[in-house]
Amino acid sequence: MATLQKNVIAILEEDHQRRVEMFRWLDDRLYQYRPVWFRTAPEMIDWLRAGENHESLAVIGLDHDSDSDDAGSDVASGRKVVDFLIAQTSDSVKIPVLIHATNEVARTAMVNLLHTHGWPVRAVIPGDDISWIGKAWYSEVKAAIRDAAKTRLQSMGDSVPKADPPGEQLVLLFE
């Protein structure tokens, strides 16, 4: 049976200031979720490939950058992670992906690829500073978590515990 405990948010973001602000919002408002940070796509792909945390993974956050390392490779490109994700052939419920990328062409391509392959995906357009994290990114993280929880509950069908019948309630009295 699938677990209901999804408490890890894996985030590809190389910018220190953005990571600090994202952490601040998650720690302050979604403290029950543990962010796992990646500066490069290969690091995130290796972590995802290991598969140790799939049961606890709630959301994948991806940036797309054209920053290159010394060898000219786009090390922080979320597109590499998207290519990895869509290559997975699992029929299990797919983890929501939240793309935060200023590059409109890359953002649109990543959203379209994920959507075409059945991945739940959302996108945020970052602004010039970090205020977009609190204004848009955080709301989309919450929405992705909420939508994924609804999907998991629906997929569980009759194995979801039923609520008490109407009229019956448990009342706790403390002295």
Q: Write down the oligomeric state.
A: single chain
Fourth CATH level, the homologous superfamily = Response regulator
Give the overall average pLDDT.
83
Beta strand count = 5
Describe the structure in your own words.
The protein is α/β, with parallel strands linked by helices and 175 residues long. It has a single domain (8-159), classed as Rossmann fold (3-Layer(aba) Sandwich). The protein has 5 helices and 5 strands. It has helices at 16-29, 41-50, 78-87, 104-116, 131-156, and strands spanning 8-12, 34-38, 57-63, 97-100, 121-124. The longest helix has 26 residues, at 131-156. The N and C termini lie far apart (40 Å).
Summarize the structure.
By secondary structure, the chain is α/β, with parallel strands linked by helices. The chain contains five helices and five strands, in the order βαβαβαβαβα. It has a five-stranded parallel beta sheet, with helices on both faces.
